[in-house]
TrEMBL record:
N-acetyltransferase domain location: 2-144
Gene3D superfamilies, A to Z: 3.40.630.30
Source organism of this protein record: Virgibacillus siamensis
Protein name in UniProt: N-acetyltransferase domain-containing protein
Domain of life: Bacteria
Amino acid sequence: MYKIRELKRTDIPAINALAENEGNIHLHQKEQPISDNTFDNIFAGNAERLYVIEESSAVRAFILFELNKESKQIYIHKLTVGTSYVKKGLDEHLYSKVERLAERNGYEQMLAEITTSSSIVHTFFEEKGWYRLNGSDTFYKAVL
């Protein structure tokens, strides 16, 4: 059974292991681990948030995003799904959680930079109504 929840300190090694594994599905061609400063900001309750999906107490996927209240935008920094969990709907659950948060709190746009060549990632966002900004190959935007 999958469970979606906010980040716990004990998740940090698993999050970075998922981020560093190039075989997993990522937004970026070369994904980097999450910095200690970013984790500190998340736990301090600043604009950054991270949700995980766990199964049997193990993290299988996560989404890292930032809330900008002034511009009413949410920027998705990372969305990672473990290879064994692709096509099981984990990306959909994480995305939907963030989208609902945006709608409930009056955010108008969601943005992400996508540098991966993975057709899975591009198709996922295009099916959600995202499009390239200004003809760019890497930026997508959805208006809520």
